């Protein structure tokens, strides 16, 4: 993990010295309750709905990888604009992620009106939920502004899909400045959370004339998934855990599952099947501390992608609409 002083230099280089307003204590004077309010909100929500951590991490990734960490994923569509969240790839984002951000924003607006951006709330809530689930702590620099734009058309080609070949997924991360190791580490977020059955139905039923299901699956696991997902056509919300062993604990078991054929998504199984990504799967499976270190560093880096500061954005009154 980068040291705070070194990281400030990195922030300055990324933003340009005239616009580098991100600091660890950005709200110390304007909203001293900031950290406690977020901590209380995410704790209550995670206890009530244990899938919140996985949902929020996914929301954060989908926000940052598309147009940068600007909270644009949170904006609702209008009759005149189809927003990012209504793009096909984002329709499966769980509601718990959106809900916890709305709750935190509501509490913060009561305590410190017009002060805290939705983008900062999402970044810190994600970090705190990762830590609460047993994952690593990492510094989140604050001072982001919220985007005034959210267009569904901006998503296409910027987010990885489970059905994509590994080369395409690697390319998406590389154009955002991430190495293959960083990409594999970020994918380790699948250690918590779930996937909808309709995302894997083609891998489970009538896969080919030679096999009913994708042969990369462990056979017993595939049969279990078939049973769990049997009503997916009638119930589109039906889902399965990404990590069948420790679904609510942030650990390295996700990587240990992949060589055993226990990856839910095609892209999960592809990580072990591709010679470019397999060494990192094996590295993280063997040593949880190395995974945690790589994940924390990659998340810290991701949290700075495409951010808006100063007059380039706004502090939204509500996270789901532009002021």
TrEMBL record:
Q: Which InterPro entries match?
A: Haem_peroxidase, Haem_peroxidase_sf, Peroxidase_pln, Peroxidases_heam-ligand_BS, Secretory_peroxidase
Task: Give its localization.
Answer: Secreted
Q: Name one GO molecular function term.
A: lactoperoxidase activity
Q: Does the keyword Oxidoreductase apply?
A: yes
User: Which keywords does UniProt give here?
Assistant: Calcium, Disulfide bond, Heme, Hydrogen peroxide, Iron, Metal-binding, Oxidoreductase, Peroxidase, Secreted, Signal
Q: Which residues form the signal peptide?
A: 1-20
**Keyword match Nucleotide-binding:** no
- E.C. code: 1.11.1.7
Q: Which domain of life is it from?
A: Eukaryota
Instruction: Give the catalytic activity.
Output: 2 a phenolic donor + H2O2 = 2 a phenolic radical donor + 2 H2O
Q: Which residues form the Plant heme peroxidase family profile domain?
A: 21-323
Cofactor descriptive note: Binds 2 calcium ions per subunit. Binds 1 heme b (iron(II)-protoporphyrin IX) group per subunit.
Q: Which family does it belong to?
A: Belongs to the peroxidase family. Ascorbate peroxidase subfamily.
Protein's job: Removal of H(2)O(2), oxidation of toxic reductants, biosynthesis and degradation of lignin, suberization, auxin catabolism, response to environmental stresses such as wounding, pathogen attack and oxidative stress.
Q: What is this protein called in UniProt?
A: Peroxidase
Q: What is the primary gene name for this protein?
A: PER63_1
């Amino acid at each position: 993990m980068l040291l705070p002083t070194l990281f400030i230099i990195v922030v300055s280089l990324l933003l340009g010295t005239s616009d580098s307003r991100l600091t660890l204590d950005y709200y110390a004077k304007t909203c001293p309750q900031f950290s406690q309010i977020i901590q209380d909100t995410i704790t209550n929500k995670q206890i009530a709905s244990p899938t919140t951590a996985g949902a929020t991490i996914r929301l954060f990734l989908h926000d940052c990888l598309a147009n940068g960490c600007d909270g644009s994923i949170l904006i609702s569509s209008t009759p005149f604009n189809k927003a990012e969240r209504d793009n096909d790839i984002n329709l499966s984002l769980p509601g718990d992620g959106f809900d916890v951000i709305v709750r935190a924003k509501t509490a913060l607006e009561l305590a410190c009106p017009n002060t805290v951006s939705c983008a900062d709330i999402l970044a810190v809530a994600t970090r705190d939920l990762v830590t609460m689930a047993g994952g690593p702590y990492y510094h989140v620099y604050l001072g982001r502004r919220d985007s005034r734009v959210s267009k569904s058309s901006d998503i296409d080609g910027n987010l990885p899909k489970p059905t994509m070949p590994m080369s395409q997924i690697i390319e998406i991360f590389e154009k955002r400045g991430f190495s293959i190791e960083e990409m594999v580490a970020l994918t380790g977020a699948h250690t918590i959370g779930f996937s909808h059955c309709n995302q894997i139905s083609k891998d489970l039923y009538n896969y080919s004339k030679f096999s009913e299901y994708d042969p990369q699956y462990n056979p017993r696991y595939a049969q279990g998934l078939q049973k769990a997902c049997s009503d997916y056509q009638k119930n589109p919300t039906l889902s399965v855990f990404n990590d069948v062993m420790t679904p609510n604990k942030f650990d390295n078991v996700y990587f240990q599952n992949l060589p055993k054929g226990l990856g839910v998504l095609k892209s999960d199984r592809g990580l072990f099947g591709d010679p470019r990504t397999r060494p990192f799967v094996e590295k993280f499976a063997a040593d949880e501390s190395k995974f945690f270190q790589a994940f924390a560093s990659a998340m810290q880096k991701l949290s700075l992608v495409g951010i808006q500061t100063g007059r380039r954005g706004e502090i939204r009154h509500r996270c789901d609409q532009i002021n």
